Amino acid sequence: xxxxxxxxxxxxxxxxxxxxxxxxxxxxxxxxxxxxxxxxxxxxxxxxxxxxxxxxxxxxxxxxxxxxxxxxxxxxxxxxxxxxxxxxxxxxxxxxxxxxxxxxxxxxxxxxxxxxxxxxxxxxxxxxxxxxxxxxxxxxxxxxxxxxxxxxxxxxxxxxxxxxxxxxxxxxxxxxxxxxxxxxxxxxxxxxxxxxxxxxxxxxxxxxxxxxxxxxxxxxxxxxxxxxxxxxxxxxxxxxxxxxxxxxxxxx
Length: 252
Hints:
It contains 14 helices and no strands. By secondary structure, it is an all-alpha fold.
């Protein structure tokens, strides 16, 4: 029997099974899409599942990347965060790993401060300001590149801010957690995602990651994992349409 989307009941059941196998969840919005546009659900499952299924990263690292992307202040998608945080713990991530990811999420926004301050510095004569203290400069040199932070102008204009920021980076994370290379993967995913695309940060993270021994395929997979978060807009639209249709059916 054909449904409203042109698929038979058996075909829709197959598509649903494929989606759950690829994505690990089933939601009201996917049911709505399956009823009206089964081709979308089939092809989205293949497209969204591809980078996680075929790349070199471990399941643990894939899920931790999703935790970063869904918890990022540029996305804040709680349903996905719950799914992927639970899955990350199931496949070997530790509590320290999770808190390390959340710490990186909190640092993400500072890259914008650095870039904006660099622009401010183009219109202010930094030569009239005191030189950066050598101890502060040493801290910047040690931590700046690893977190995609160009802190030169910040440290000249407001050294106190640079100090407390570096304290937060150095001391705000868990005692254990991700390796430096794993942190680079998470940061690359955060800055490459369309919700907070940051080319300047990406150009800083990539050479750091390569110097840490990561392969191009690992970096590419971290980049690819962010694209299909755009489906959360589709999910919102499908849920709203389902509510509108339900309300119309209830009208006398």
